[in-house]
Structure prediction request, 193 residues.
Amino acid sequence: MLRRLYDWTMSLAATRHAEAALAGVSFAESSFFPIPPDTLLIPMVLANRTKWFRYALLCTISSVIGAFLGYAIGAFLYEAVGQPLLAFYGKEDAFQSIREWYNKWGGWGVLFAAVTPFPYKVLTIFSGATGLNLAIFALVSVVGRSIRFFLVAWLLYRWGAPMRTFIERNLNLLFVIFMVLLIGGFVAIKYLL
Prediction:
């Protein structure tokens, strides 16, 4: 089943709708969607390595725009939308206890979440809810998301064929590692925030 899903994702990556899907997932992941855009970015670059820069740029821009939606959810819809989303991730009680600290050091947290598999949406919402300086938020979002997506895309561009072979040979193991990192990010939210 995992092989069929991989093959389907690789075939989607080569369709005319791939870029729209990548933009949509990148946008949504920054504010509410739990699946990272890497799930599309990686097969898209592997399917057409010459477009690595375009895909990374599209992913970055869409993700940063989505981050502003997450910020707006936190700032304007915290009680109606933001609080339930934070509750879904188990972080509603942490809000008051770290608000002051977050406004001083939150830019580093946003940068960390923007670069790593840590669920970025939690900190975009939290940033809006706590009133993190919007200029700092924008700067670290652009820098962090650029580092993450351009690095991934460039590595795939540079070593694409061997990486594709490695991925296809070790698909089950890589899936388990991906799931551990994804679930670990959510667990980290529970204990770090």
